[in-house]
Structures are given as C-alpha cells and as structure tokens.
Amino acid sequence: xxxxxxxxxxxxxKCLKLAESSNEHEAAAAIRQAQALARQRIHTIYxxxxxxxxxxxxxxxxxxxxxxxxxxxxxxxxxxLKANIx
Length: 86
Prior knowledge:
InterPro entries: DUF2786 (IPR024498), H-NS_C_dom (IPR027444), H-NS_C_dom_sf (IPR037150). With 86 residues, the protein is mainly alpha-helical. The chain has helices at 3-18, 24-41, 66-73, 78-81; strands spanning 46-50, 54-58.
C-alpha cells in the first residue's frame, strides 16, 4: 500500500474512533469525514463495528486481517462489511 493510502487509512481510523462519541452530532460528522476521505483515493473499504463501539477498517488489499478472516469463518460475507463511500 502506498504511503498516501496509509495516511488516508490512518485518518479514516481516527474519524471512526471519533464516531464512537456519545455526542450524536460529533459522531455523524466523523462518519461523514471518514466517507469523504475514503472517496479521495480508496475505492473499497471494509469496516466492522465491534462490541457496539470499536471500529476496524481494511482496504481490501493485501492479506486479510484476522478480524476479516474470523468474520468470514463465522458465516459473514465481505459484502456485509463493505462501507458505503459513494
């Protein structure tokens, strides 16, 4: 993955962390910012919300992270994890 894409993914992860805010307006703004960042250079991003508050993200390139493998092994699909970034 390019350094630029890694930087964007890092920013997306920060936004997803802010999306855990109890302030619904702040959380919604963080999600919108994450989507805007993803639209810049990334065509597909997979996101899993864990335990109702933690977000995991993967760009769909390279080896699948353990959480993706566990999701698929438990009967989930990648399509279910695909974020709507349109």
